[in-house]
Amino acid sequence: xxxxxxxxxxxxxxxxxxxxxxxxxxxxxxxxxxxxxxxxxxxxxxxxxxxxxxxxxxxxxxxxxxxxxxxxxxxxxxxxxxxxxxxxxxxxxxxxxxxxxxxxxxxxxxxxxxxxxxxxxxxxxxxxxxxxxxxxxxxxxxxxxxxxxxxxxxxxxxxxxxxxxxxxxxxxxxxxxxxxxxxxxxxxxxxxxxxxxxxxxxxxxxxxxxxxxxxxxxxxxxxxxxxxxxxxxxxxxxxxxxxxxxxxxxxxxxxxxxxxxxxxxxxxxxxxxxxxxxxxxxxxxxxxxxxxxxxxxxxxxxxxxxxxxxxxxxxxxxxxxxxxxxxxxxxxxxxxxxxxxxxxxxxxxxxxxxxxxxxxxxxxxxxxxxxxxxxxxxxxxxxxxxxx
Length: 388
Hints:
One of its GO terms (molecular function) is lactose binding. Its main location: membrane. Residues 6-359 form the Major facilitator superfamily associated domain. By secondary structure, this protein is mainly α. The chain has helices spanning 3-31, 36-61, 68-84, 91-106, 108-123, 128-148, 155-175, 190-201, 204-218, 221-233, 238-258, 260-266, 268-286, 292-300, 302-320, 326-356, 361-378, 382-386. The chain has two domains: 1-184, Up-down Bundle (Growth Hormone, Chain: A); 193-387, MFS general substrate transporter like domains (Growth Hormone, Chain: A, Up-down Bundle). The chain is globular and about 55 Å long. The model has no long low-confidence stretch (mean pLDDT 86).
């Protein structure tokens, strides 16, 4: 099987988990009797700790001989934590189970991104092809769960993500190439791996790129946590909610698959600014509870608020870091953009939802505006302009 097809199938396995856990785990927690603030706290916990847990797990992963080995272990352990949610008796136990499962499973994505970005550069294929295949699986899983939930209880959400996590472990073993972590042979000592991580944190341009991407991605926090609940309040049917999520991800997939030449011409700096501008427009509009017909074009902006800013950040981080620190750099990027800032936004989203309802989107628009400021400053950096 061609490498790009194998990597595509592995991303599919990953996003069979994410396509259900991201939009629907709040529904499961709501069914277990948690309030909006409690749901926000559960969802935010792994995100807030990700700068620490992600860094620790990245350094741990760099101690293996093959890059796929830690992916297998992480997926199996995450499946166990997800399964425990079915018997967790209350808020604190659910928080611990979700913290463990989401922390372990979310570390797999930056690890496979390192492999895919490197192979795409060496073998000349578009990184967006395998990554976009994962997003296609997100759509399929999302739509399927929207239908399933009309037939059975919310417990099926946890059953699905547990089985899919085990499938991810198997896929890592059979599909991910046996690429070595360190081409020169033995892994460096743990002290040296931590030293490389420290050097990234003192690089001002690197830190600005990570924080800027984090602000733009963090602005999705309220949408990820409460859009499904809010759309239900607007009396939008459950299957149509799945379609709305699917439209957003379809736009993301189209961007990754078909706009690669344009993306390269634009460059990551300007692409990041476009993503931030789209975030301001999208979340401002959502604060007015737009009708169903207006939600479709607004969901299409996910191509920029997520896909454009995500791809721009990956390219910037790869350019700004040495190969020996690639895993740590992408893990830090994921820890901030898909972790800490998103976690803060998610934690704030619970009280915002309880107090303001749909008006909580105003706070997300403000995060997008802050990200736009960071992107404009970053665009003036000589290193970003030079692509070095």
